[in-house]
Amino acid sequence: MFTRFDKLTREQLNGMASQGYAVVVPLGACEQHGLHLPTGTDNFICDEISRRAVAEAVDMGARLILAPLLPVGSSAHHIAFGGTISFSSATYLSILKDIGASLADSGFNRLIFLNGHGGNEHLMHQAASDLAVTHLAWTASASYWNVAREALAAACPEEIFPVPGHAGGFETSLILSLAPETVCDDRIGCMHPRRPWMAAGPSGAFIGKQGELTGVDGYTDPSGLATGEQGERYLNTIAAAVAKWLLATWKTMDGDTQAETDGSGNFAPNR
Predict the structure, then answer these.
(1) Which InterPro entries match (predicted)?
(2) What is the CATH number of the domain that holds 245?
(3) Considering the domain boundaries, does residue 267 fall inside one?
């Protein structure tokens, strides 16, 4: 069973900080998801994956605390379509750094960002890097689809949905599993033009076009073949992969810092 940050007292949390617990901070977004999916799609998905993955990792021996999900992200590229709440890039970067700084100043020297929205990704990595520069702490960050990409390809080789896409077959399947009552079935399209240049090029490269950063009309691919059964398979596969990554990340943080601690679990100053 995992522990939620917001259900503990300060005394309990202070004790866990001294014992070397890492805090997992899920990152979501509130933004348009086409004509058929709710604006909380990324939040629903990231919250569920975070809870399942942290619970699995804790069962395997990791000392993790799950922080409340941050429900607004960097989504300026969706604002033109309506139905979107967003922080600017500069504000979002500052918010993530403030979250990390407050945790570090509260005694937690291990922080893991787990992301569920593409627009957050680069800023999340920058925040994690900056925090490791300014605080005597371990930081890590990843988007769930990158952690689980190989596992998804192995478990679902027949699937044709781009992962994660945006408001396409992949996310629609996940929401049909998690919150089917929020899906407008009559607005699901079976045809949708794709842009071959999206996600093209070498790893780490970027190419984009105003108005089509997330595909034609704000989404990437059709959802007519999406099902809740597929969504549950995706969730199980993703949660298992993320749990393994969380466990490995925590072990790295815990094992490498043993020689640097003062015996209480807190970092000893470098001399």
Answers:
(1) Creatininase-like_sf, Creatininase/forma_Hydrolase
(2) 3.40.50.10310
(3) no
In a domain, residue 100? The reply is yes
CA distance 179 to 38: 9
219 by Cβ neighbours in 10 Å (0-12 / 13-18 / 19+) ranks as buried
Whose tokens are 């790295």? That residue is 252
* Under 8 Å between Cβ of 24 and 67: yes
Q: Name the residue range of residue 149's domain.
A: 3-8+16-258
Give residue for tokens 């699901």.
188
**What pLDDT score does 238 carry?**
98
Question: Can you give the pTM of this predicted structure?
Answer: 0.88
- For the chain, report the end-to-end CA distance as a whole number of angstroms: 38
For residues 196 and 92, give the distance between their C-alpha atoms in angstroms, rounded to a whole number. 30
Q: Please report where in the chains the tokens 């099902």 appear, as a residue.
A: 227
Helix axes 89-105, 121-134, angle to 10 degrees: 40
For CA atoms 232, 7, 65, 140, give the dihedral sign: positive
| Number of domains forming the structure of the chain | 1
User: pLDDT value at position 191?
Assistant: 60
> Which amino acid appears at position 128 of this protein?
A
Q: Is residue 147 included in any domain, yes or no?
A: yes
Domain assignment present for 243: yes
| Interatomic CA distance for residues 196 and 213, integer angstroms | 12
Answer whether 139's CB lies under 8 Å from 131's CB: yes
What was the pLDDT predicted at 213? Answer: 57
**Series of mean pLDDT values for 10-residue runs along the chain (271 residues):** 91 97 98 96 98 98 98 95 97 98 97 97 98 97 96 82 88 97 90 63 65 67 90 97 98 70 37 24
